[in-house]
Specification:
The protein is mostly helical and 112 residues long. The protein contains 5 helices and no strands. It starts with 5 loop residues before the first helix and ends with a helix.
Length: 112
Amino acid sequence: MPWFSGAELMLARLICCVLLMSALVGCDGREQGVAVEPPSSIQLAKAVLEEIASSGELNSSVEGLQDRLESVRESDPAKADELLAGYTKLMAIPRGNVSKIKATAKEMAEKF
């Protein structure tokens, strides 16, 4: 004895086709992406300095900071020189002197 009668089988196939067509029709319309502008080197440098001013830790976040500060030179050479001098001062502070690290990083971040 068959599981489905002829009419039930046709109905099941029709339902499968409708579902398949619905899925395919729904897939052809693509959502428009939103253009997102990545943060500039200057914004990243300020964010790193703010993080250091908050934590007092000179961890891996300082990697690349010098290059980001150097990129300030394009728009403001005098500020770049000042920030790079601050960077040299910051890197010379012993890692255990958290309060001095925080103060120096905060001072540098305020220059942006």
